[in-house]
Amino acid sequence: MTSVRIGVMGGTFDPIHNGHLVAAAEVADRLDLDRVILCPAGQPWHRAAPPVAGVHDRFAMTELAARADPRFTASRVDIDRVGPTFTIDTLRDLRAGFAAHDPETSAEWYFITGADALDQFMTWKHPLEIVELAHLVGVTRPGHGLRNPDLPDGRWTLVEIPALDISSTRIRELLANGDPVDALVPAAVAQYMERHDLYRGGPS
């Protein structure tokens, strides 16, 4: 039986940007991942306000961004599911789909998120099952660690990446002001946002 190492990066991706892609590529390089699945959230459970762009636009941009690296793919698993997006459901569904599609291949799963998010990990839905399904990978800037590393031993890793001053909020603000964002997102994503007039009405 062959074996693969699969990373999963979830996010609102409103819009996806170069910071997300650099983080995914760095983790893939450091942990020798064969692929990274990018999963835009349907209804992020931790956000009071809904995403600015609709699910179909956010998935389309994620799919375009995934072309930046042959290891990347985009998944609709979270946007096609009804209800709030929880990590436990993402991992259950991806693992079940993989097993059904490729039963002769075993997989090691890695869930990639910001180290700041892992500080609140024990408040997530079914955290102990999550660490049974996937190894946690916290992405952080050099010199920064977990404030409260109350995580199961042996089931998490921190990966330092170069500090990139990019955020989806900042990109939306720039677009609302009519400023260019070409250096912050893949060219195909910039073209998509312009073509569909996304984020022009205000930063939100």
UniProtKB/TrEMBL annotation:
<protein>
    <submittedName>
        <fullName>Unannotated protein</fullName>
    </submittedName>
</protein>
<comment type="pathway">
    <text>Cofactor biosynthesis; NAD(+) biosynthesis.</text>
</comment>
<keyword id="KW-0548">Nucleotidyltransferase</keyword>
<dbReference type="InterPro" id="IPR004821">
    <property type="entry name" value="Cyt_trans-like"/>
</dbReference>
<feature type="domain" description="Cytidyltransferase-like">
    <location>
        <begin position="8"/>
        <end position="173"/>
    </location>
</feature>
<dbReference type="GO" id="GO:0005524">
    <property type="term" value="F:ATP binding"/>
</dbReference>
<keyword id="KW-0662">Pyridine nucleotide biosynthesis</keyword>
<keyword id="KW-0808">Transferase</keyword>
<dbReference type="Pfam" id="PF01467">
    <property type="entry name" value="CTP_transf_like"/>
</dbReference>
<keyword id="KW-0067">ATP-binding</keyword>
<dbReference type="InterPro" id="IPR005248">
    <property type="entry name" value="NadD/NMNAT"/>
</dbReference>
<keyword id="KW-0547">Nucleotide-binding</keyword>
<dbReference type="GO" id="GO:0070566">
    <property type="term" value="F:adenylyltransferase activity"/>
</dbReference>
<keyword id="KW-0520">NAD</keyword>
<dbReference type="GO" id="GO:0009435">
    <property type="term" value="P:NAD+ biosynthetic process"/>
</dbReference>
<dbReference type="InterPro" id="IPR014729">
    <property type="entry name" value="Rossmann-like_a/b/a_fold"/>
</dbReference>
